[in-house]
Write a structure and sequence with these properties.
Elements: E1 7-11, H1 16-27, E2 32-35, H2 48-51, E3 59-63, E4 66-68, H3 71-81, H4 95-125, H5 137-164, H6 177-180, H7 183-190, H8 193-200, H9 203-213, H10 216-227, E5 231-233, E6 240-241, E7 247-248
Parallel strand pairs: 1-2
Antiparallel strand pairs: 1-3, 2-5, 3-4, 6-7
Length: 249
């Protein structure tokens, strides 16, 4: 059975797709092997599983004979393949709850993802495109694009703020995949003052982001992103490093 096989995650911990998958695995309290793709740049043979991955994706899950390359589909798979090793609410205990979670997963993928990732990228890297005197056509073009992304994102946040006025989390009063899926992009937005101000501009969104970003599973993801480690990982403790750079729990 696939459930007994080792879970392997291929990708870069800093990738939003990889972070989403790791957060789900940590929430599920599942052990997995994180294989950094850059490990294979120094003359190592790239595994066939990584060669097979979707060129547009940033993460690959290998679990027995199962191969998945979309981070949201991976999270769905983890929640359904390992239903008894996790909080029951993460993907909904019934069809009605799951339909609500899916509505917000679609909202994240189709409405939140693009403007939030574009704005986070601009806030992190726009200075690299600027001319030495702080001007330049590239910087001006990026600034205009960032303003448009911010406008679109604020429209999305207005919808979220309204929904979060009625419940603690997007799909109700329990933390679910609907909330988890937003964490990677929201985290990168919050790394910049302008992004933090944007999230704080909507009171219910600010309260919600404060709650979901403080979850122990997400803090483990952030710790792994900062460690540069690869190897086996498990939920429940902070990473420590052995002589080979693996993550030990």
């Amino acid at each position: 059975m696939a459930s007994a096989a080792v879970l392997q995650v291929f990708g870069q911990p800093a990738s939003t797709d990889v972070a989403r998958v790791m957060a789900c695995l940590f929430e599920r309290k599942l052990e997995f092997e994180l294989v950094r793709v850059d490990t294979f740049k120094r003359g190592h043979k790239l595994p066939e599983i990584v060669k097979m991955r979707d060129p547009g994706g940033q993460v690959t899950l290998k679990h027995g004979d199962v191969t998945l390359t979309d981070s949201r589909d991976i999270c769905r798979y983890v929640c359904t393949e390992f239903p008894r090793w996790c909080t029951r609410a993460l993907y909904g205990p019934g069809a009605l709850e799951r339909a609500s979670i899916e509505k917000w997963l679609q909202a994240e993928a189709k409405s939140f993802d693009a403007p939030s990732s574009a704005l986070a990228f601009h806030l992190a890297f726009a200075d690299l495109a600027a001319a030495p005197d702080g001007g330049g056509d590239d910087y001006a073009r990026l600034a205009v694009a960032a303003e448009e992304s911010e406008r679109r994102l604020l429209e999305v946040l207005d919808v979220y703020d309204d929904a979060l006025a009625r419940s603690a989390y997007l799909a109700g009063d329990e933390f679910t995949l609907a909330d988890l899926s937003h964490l990677p992009n929201a985290h990168y937005l919050a790394c910049a003052a302008r992004g933090r101000a944007l999230l704080a501009s909507r009171a219910n969104v600010a309260r919600w982001f404060g709650a979901i970003s403080a979850r122990p599973a997400w803090r483990q993801v952030v710790a792994l992103q900062g460690s540069g480690a690869h190897g086996p990982a498990a939920a429940g403790a902070s990473p420590s490093h052995d002589a080979h750079g693996a993550v030990g729990i």
